[in-house]
Design goal:
The complex is a heterodimer of chains A (226) and B (96). Chain A is mainly alpha-helical. Chain A contains 11 helices and no strands. Classes of the chains: A mainly alpha (226), B mainly alpha (96). The structure holds zinc ion.
Chain lengths: 226, 96
């Protein structure tokens, strides 16, 4: 299999269905986007009423992506400044959270991922060998029981999540922690819904493998239920 | 830990419980759609039927649900530092 480009970084999937609708509320800020003529007062109002309420979620997302408090700080600040600068490409009353998350994720890819210490290449090779055929993907189920994970604590879950390659980590954060729909995730990540679905599926299998390692290191074994 | 079912003759109206699932990979995908609230009505019906008659699917459902709950409920949520909020607000005011 060819090397995966650093930015796109997802293997092609079979089910690239469902084109995105034309009116994209999470349109990336760009000079081409028709500007809405907000007055300064309106800009501040949108910023304070529609953008700022999401700042804790944004910080959480940034921290989960960068796994570093200082980087999370910078990333959130950059994102909010960008959001204000390009506020005329945001349509008031639409999905501000998805719009902001998309800017943050793009900033992360463009500005932080490159200089990140994360050994992305190694991670992807690892993933490739695990899932380099469709068979491997579709037949793969992780041997783990619900009772084995129910005693794990938040720190262990966080460590398991952080150990996933960033693209897989991202879909789990967006879906399970932030509660975005597949359609919203498709827009935030600029990928088809089918890819959201399959990436999420693979991410969860990887996460379960990590959780299984934790659970078994804690002494759980399948057979020794009391 | 489960006891084997008594060989009740024709009396039981319950569907037979399958111990092996021949399409667990597809079942797993369906189960995730359900838990994510993304399943169609048709898919819901199919999985519901499976969850009454297929033991591996029941266990998969419980595991997926448990993992999702770990992520939604047990992970620490970090709040944005007050200082950062203040910085952003003052930077914005110096624009335009
Ligand atoms: Zn089944």
């Amino acid at each position: 299999m060819a090397t995966i480009p650093e930015v796109m970084s997802d293997t092609p999937t079979r089910d690239d269905d469902q084109l995105l609708p034309d009116s994209d509320p999470t349109e990336q800020p760009s000079a081409d986007t028709p500007a809405r003529g907000y007055s300064d007062a309106q800009k501040y109002q949108i910023f304070n009423k529609e953008f700022m309420p999401h700042i804790d979620s944004m910080y959480n997302f940034a921290f989960r992506l960068t796994t570093d408090e200082d980087d999370a700080n910078d990333l959130v600040q950059d994102t909010y400044l960008k959001a204000f600068r390009f506020i005329s490409s945001f349509e008031q009353g639409t999905n501000a959270k998805a719009w902001l998350f998309r800017i943050l994720k793009n900033s992360f890819i463009n500005d932080y991922r490159k200089k990140s210490k994360e050994p992305a290449k190694v991670d992807y090779q690892d993933v490739e060998t695990t899932y380099n055929s469709e068979d491997a993907e579709s037949e793969h189920t992780v041997d783990l029981r619900a009772e084995s994970v129910s005693d794990l604590i938040g720190d262990e879950v966080a460590t398991a999540l952080n150990s996933l390659p960033v693209d897989f980590r991202t879909v789990i954060i967006l879906c399970d922690i932030e509660g975005f729909t597949y359609e919203e995730m498709a827009k935030i990540l600029d990928i088809p819904i089918g890819t959201v679905r399959s990436r999420l599926h693979r991410a969860r299998n990887l996460l379960k493998e990590k959780l299984r390692d934790y659970a078994s290191s804690m002494g759980y074994k399948e057979e020794n239920e009391e | 830990m489960q006891t084997s079912l008594p060989p009740s003759a024709s009396s039981s109206g319950k569907p037979e419980m399958k111990e092996h699932c021949n399409h667990s990979a597809d079942c797993l995908k369906m189960i995730q759609l359900i838990l994510d609230g993304e399943a169609t009505d048709q898919q819901l019906v199919r999985v519901k039927a499976n969850l009454e008659s297929c033991r591996p699917c029941i266990e998969m459902y419980q595991l997926e649900k448990e993992v999702k709950e770990l992520l939604t409920k047990r992970m620490e949520k970090r709040c944005c530092p007050e200082q950062l909020v203040a910085t952003i607000k003052s930077r914005i005011l110096s624009f335009s």
